[in-house]
Every structure is written in structure tokens, then in C-alpha cells.
């Protein structure tokens, strides 16, 4: 049986947590346990040094904000019983350890509440194409979920989270609509993409046209044509604007296209496909402009290319936790 590349590495796991505990201040018992662990295997010291290098960046405000949202239980360190210690650093040690473990050795934690509601769901970095009962096709992007509600007089697909591209089979007797965040997008013989964000839903048309309605936000409607995009949210439907349909649908071909985009936006998009944690250290670096075409199924390779072309450095705790800096 082939090894699972995403399986937890117990050495990297322990090294990451030892680095955090050492930074917080070890007791005499903890120092002895760390020394014993370092001397018990020749692989432990280099793993520990690598973890310490990555941990230097963990105090950055952007990272603290991110790790504060993570939740994961902490198994005890090898040979060191979990003993609470006073001190300011200890206040955020738990979520920081949780983040390093979650991102380095566990990856994404499945969204079970959404999974229970969905008929189809993808993990981070996964894409999936479904053929529905009427012959329509749906391609789910990374970390996305839908539920299907086909009835005798209508066809409804709910985007529960993430992004989905639709290719609709014609059936004049049963309109095809996609619902997300209280609004709906009805196909008028078409191909289109619905991307559900936290506050808004983006509708992009790649063939023919759709009717977008946001009845919960002032009963506004709009006809969006091929090569156009529009967003709706609590304030209603925004302005319709032209887009590059080929670039907008590139993810359906496992590609990401960027034309003169800020590095922070590019990294944010790569993070959608990366089962880990990529952070830019330094606000000015995020302003650097980027153009390129990258594969969705290898965000780390895309990051390597960006790093080389922009002459940037990186510190990595495996390929799961990556800090981009000068």
C-alpha cells in the first residue's frame, strides 16, 4: 500500500509543539524531557531547529489572527506531562499549538454541519464534476458544497459554501435556479459560475445569460449576460461589469490566471487550494504585482515560482506552514 503523503508525521508534530513550549518557558522537568527527546533519535534535532525557525514568525499579528480561529485538541508532548504555567505568552500558546498541528499534520477539518446538509462536497484542493438527473453538470471547486432539490416543476441547486460552475440541460418546463445567501440565479440556457463568499455571492456568466434575483435584499433583479459578472449581498445587487470569461473559468480547467494582481490577492487565492497555511510577512510585500498562470492542484509549486520570480525568501514547517518574507 502506498504511503499517504498527508498522513501525520509524529516527529514534525512533536517538534512543532516543543518549539512552542520552549518559547513559553519550560520547567526543569520540561527541559529534561526535551533533552531526552532530542537525544533519542538523530532526526529529532534537525526537525526541532526547523520548527524553531518557523516559530519565529508565529508572533506576527496576521498569524495570531489566523490561528485564533483554529480549534484542535492537544495531545501531551512525549515525556512531558501537560502542566499549565503562568505568563503572558501562555494566553495564546494553546491556539498556536493547535494551528501548527492542524496545519502541519492534519490539514483541513471537515465541516460536518455542512456535510450533513449537502449532496456533494469537496475538500480543500479537491475539485469534482457531477452529472445531475436531467443531464446538467456541476463542477465543484475547492472546499465547496451543494444540495440538490429537483421537483416536477423546477430544478433548484443550493450552494451551501464555496464555488460551483453550472452547465445546464435545457428543459423549458422546469426552470433551473441556483440559490445562495437568500438570492437566486436562474439559467436562461446557459453556463455560469456561482461563488458564495462570507458576505456576498458572485455570479459570473460564461455562456448566454442568467437572471439574478435578490428578493431578501429589496427585491432587486438583473439580467447578466455572457462575459459579465455581478455580486449581491445584504445591500442588494451590485453593478454589472465585464470580465474575462476564460480567466474567470480557468479553475474549471485546473488553472489560476492572474494579470497584474497584488501578491496578497494571489496568495489568498492559492490558500483556497492549499491544505495548510501561507502567510506574507510584511505589508509592502503584499503590494507587489504578479502576473502568471498556475495549476490549482499544486499551490506549493506556484508559490515556489512566485518566490523565485520576486526574489523573496520563505520559512517552512513542511509545505503545510509557509511564511513568505524578504
From TrEMBL:
Q: Where does the FecR protein domain start and stop, copy by copy?
A: 121-210
Q: What would be one Pfam family of this protein?
A: FecR
- What InterPro entries does the annotation carry? FecR, Ferrdict_sens_TM
Example GO molecular function? sigma factor antagonist activity
According to UniProt, the name of this protein is: FecR protein domain-containing protein
The species this protein was found in:
Novosphingobium guangzhouense
